[in-house]
Amino acid sequence: MNKFRTSLLMLLPGIAFSALVFVLWNAAPWATQSSDAQKKEKKKPAPVIPYESGIAWAEPKVVTPGTDNSPPSDAIVLFDGKNMDAWTGGEKWILEEGAGTAKSAVSTKQAFGDVQLHLEFATPKEVKGKGQGRGNNGIGFMNAKYEVQVLDSYDNPTYFDGMVASLYKQRPPMVNPSRKPGEWQTYDIIFEAPRFQDGKLAKPAIVTAFLNGILVQNHVELIGDTPYDRAPAYKPHAEKLPLTLMYHGDPVRFRNIWVREFKELEGKMPKK
User: Fold this and answer.
1) 76, 259 contact by CB (below 8 A)
2) Are residues 187 and 122 in the same domain?
3) Residues 191, 141 contacting (CB under 8 angstroms)
4) What's the domain count of the chain?
5) Backbone CA torsion sign across 178, 244, 170, 198
6) pLDDT band at 3, cuts 50/70/90?
7) What pLDDT band is residue 90 in, cutting at 50, 70 and 90?
8) For residue 10, pLDDT beyond 60
9) Which residue range(s) make up the domain with 38?
């Protein structure tokens, strides 16, 4: 025990000296500066350089959305249930309760090219006929050259590229979201008109469509017009033509029809 105490007493001065040196070193100015520098280095994040395309874009114009099923501020209203002033051929149509019952084909007085179309329709509540003979009509873009089918397809089998929401005789809808006969249904269709140059097709017509809020046609390129009795084909025509609601003898009702003309934004590329 005495030897242990003796050894401990001999070590104490060395331990005390080491502790003193440690305290003095860390209290020195260079130690504080080094510690502060390390803290600053840790806190500094790497600089973030945002990506810039350099493309100069025009400012998108402001459009006020509609409320309570009303059209947006830049829409062209084609039918609000009050009259057929925007159409030709609608003298026999029956207008009541904010809707119009088809009694003939009608076409807009104004010509359109690329448009967003909103339209609501209801096939007859009293079911008569079957297949193509039940609630048949059609939305004909560019003077009825390109048709999106209107039909009562609720529990009503027919050829798939002739059912509701089909691009007539070209492509069936991806799904069938039809409501029951007599119930109001909603189309929202984006139609891009074809372009012709020097008498030849430069860009095909493209259709994206929603029926009752459900995507049924997704950016589909048409292979030509949509006739009943021959293969599709493109023939040069104007960039803008009237919109047509077709008629096949069925009293289909329509309401709340409007369009928005659109044009893709064009950006100016930076000079190299």
Assistant:
1) yes
2) yes
3) yes
4) 2
5) negative
6) low
7) very high
8) no
9) 2-43
